[in-house]
Amino acid sequence: MRAYERFLKYVGFDTTSDENAPENVCPSTEKQKELAKFLVEEMKGLGLSDAHMDENGYVYGTLPANCEEKLPVIGLISHMDTSPSASGAGIRPRIVENYDGGDIVLNQEKQIVMSPAKFESLRDYKGKDLIVTDGTTLLGADDKAGVAEIMTVLEKLSGGGIKHGKIAVGFTPDEEIGRGADRFDVEHFGADYAYTVDGGRLGEIEYENFNAAAATVTVNGVNIHPGDAKNKMKNALLMGVEFNSMLPPNEIPACTEGYEGFHHLSHMEGDEEKAVLRYIIRDHDMNQFTEKKARFEKVARYLNEKYGDNTIELTLRDSYYNMKEKIEPHMFIIEKAKKAMKDAGVEPEIVAIRGGTDGARLSYMGLPCPNLSTGGHNFHGRFEYVPVQSMDSMADVLLNIVKAE
C-alpha cells in the first residue's frame, strides 16, 4: 500500500487535541485513542508483536533486526493529533490529479479557492497529484502524513527482503498543544537516536527550532455603571489592549521570518471586570528569548504601578528549547538523513523550524531527535495540501535511513 492510501484512511479519524483540557488528562481528547488502536492493530499485522497503546494514548512498537550485524536502534516518531486551529472532523479529502498549475476550487458552493497567487508553493507541483481539503476543515497531513510514511516503511520491511537493524516506532498524542513529549517513555522506547517525521516541504531537515514559552496575562478591572464611572471604572479590556500596545508591534508573526522571533496574541476574552490574554513567545536565540520574556514582566510591573497592585497577573511557562545544542554533538544523524535523501533523488535542505516538534523535547530528554519533512504544506488550515509523490519519496527516504548499509 502506498503512503497516500494509508493517509486517506487515517484522516477519517478526528484526532483534534484540546489545549483547554486539564494538563493531568492525557490524551487531551479520548478520540485520539481510536486512531491509536487502529495503528496498533495495523502494526501487529506487519510483524510488530509488541505493538501497544499505553494508558496515556502513546503507541509503541519495535520491528526486530533481521541481520546479525550489530546496528544502532533507530527510532521513527510522528504524532497522531491535529491542530485545534481548524476543524479536524468530517475531513473530505480529494486528489487533484495531474495538477495544471492554476487555481484549485476546493468548494464550489462556498466559493473557496486555493490559488498559486496566494500559495506560491503550488507552482512547484504542476503535473503532480495533490491531496486537498474541501475548504471547510484542515487536512491532517500534520502529522498523519508522517504516520502514513512510517507505516509504509514498516510494510516494505515486513517482507524480509531488506536488511535492517532494530527499529523503534512511536506515535504520540497532543503534540499540537505542546504536550506530545510529556509522557513519552524514552527508556522504554529504546532507540539510540530517532527522527520525528513532522516537517513540511519534501527535503527539509530541521535540527534548530524556537525556544518557546506561553504567557497568560490576566487583567483585573473594576466595573461600574458607565454613567457613574468617572475616576472609578478600570476597564480590564482596555488595560489588556494597553498591555498589548506596549509590546513591539513589529515582533509579531506577520512581520517576522527566518531566525526572527516574535510574540503572538493567540486568544483574548473578557469584560470590564476581567480580561485574559494568551500569548506564545518564540525565538531561536536564547538571549533574545529571555529578553522577550523579561519585556512581558516589565510591562506587567509598569501597569501594576500605574493602576494598582495585582491589576496585571502574569504567568510565564517555558514550553521547549532549541534542540541545536543537543544535536550538534551527533551530527552523523543529520549526515545520515542527507545521504538518505540524496539516494532517494531528494535534494536535502537544512532549515530552522519556526515552531517546535516532539523531537525538540525528546532531545532534551536524552534522545537526539531531529525533524524530517513529510511533504505537506499550509498546515493547520483549510488550504492544507500534500503531494502524493512527495509522500512516496519520503517513504523511500525513511527506508534508506533504517536499512542496513
Task: Explain this structure.
By secondary structure, this protein is α+β, with helices and mostly antiparallel strands. It has two domains: 3-209 and 322-402, 3-Layer(aba) Sandwich (Aminopeptidase); 213-320, 2-Layer Sandwich (Alpha-Beta Plaits), CATH 3.30.70.360. 28% of the residues lie in helices and 22% in strands. An eight-stranded mixed β-sheet has the order 1-2-8-3-9-16-10-15, sandwiched between helices. Strands 12-13-11-14 form a four-stranded antiparallel β-sheet. A three-stranded antiparallel β-sheet has the order 4-7-17. Helix 1 (3-10) packs across helix 3. The protein is globular.
List keywords for this structure.
single chain; 405 residues; alpha+beta; Aminopeptidase; Alpha-Beta Plaits; 2 domains; 8-stranded mixed β-sheet; 4-stranded antiparallel β-sheet; 10 helices; globular
Distance separating the two termini? 25 Å
Rg on CA atoms, Å? 23 Å
State the share of residues found in helices, binned by percent.
25-40%
SSE order: HHEEEEEEEHEHEEEHEEHEHHEHEEH
The spatial strand order of the largest sheet comes to 1-2-8-3-9-16-10-15
CATH homologous superfamily title of the largest domain: Zn peptidases
Number of helices: 10
CATH architecture of the largest domain: 3-Layer(aba) Sandwich
Shape: globular
Largest sheet: 8 strands, mixed
